[in-house]
Write a structure and sequence with these properties.
alpha+beta; three-stranded antiparallel sheet; 130 residues; 2 domains
Length: 130
């Protein structure tokens, strides 16, 4: 899985797992989380959007979803990963095991080169060919 795809998954997981959107005994949500729709209220497809989630600003672009709902999604050019992902590999070598805090969860991973510049903690085990 590429870092871009992982960024997309983290973006949607972060919003979907928001404590504000989880209500006990509620029917399963239909459509995108309200936070994604609210972030694009009054905007057009292609406009930039942002959310505050878990104390972090998440930026993206307004996209047209199912039923013509305009919602915030990841942009084509993901920003740099959070500093915590780089900090988790300080003093380590490529392929070393690491743990990266993602949305308050300790996620095990491995150190890998990011854009050939420095190491970051990529979730999941190291696989041949990375």
């Amino acid at each position: 899985m590429t870092l871009y795809r992982h960024t997309i998954l983290l973006f949607f997981a972060a919003v979907a797992l928001s404590p504000a959107s989880a209500e006990p005994n509620a029917d399963p949500p239909r459509g995108p989380p309200p936070e994604l729709v609210e972030a694009c209220k009054g905007k057009k497809v292609g406009d930039s959007c942002s959310l505050i989630f878990g104390g972090r600003s998440v930026t993206g672009v307004c996209l047209r979803g199912r039923n013509d709902v305009v919602m915030c999604g990841p942009s084509d050019k993901p920003s740099e990963p959070p500093a915590e992902m780089f900090d988790a590999c300080k003093g380590k070598k490529e392929r070393d095991a690491c743990t990266s805090p993602i949305e308050g969860q300790a996620v095990p991973g491995h150190c890998t080169s990011w854009k050939g510049k420095r190491l970051l903690c990529r979730p999941g085990p190291w696989r041949q060919g990375e």
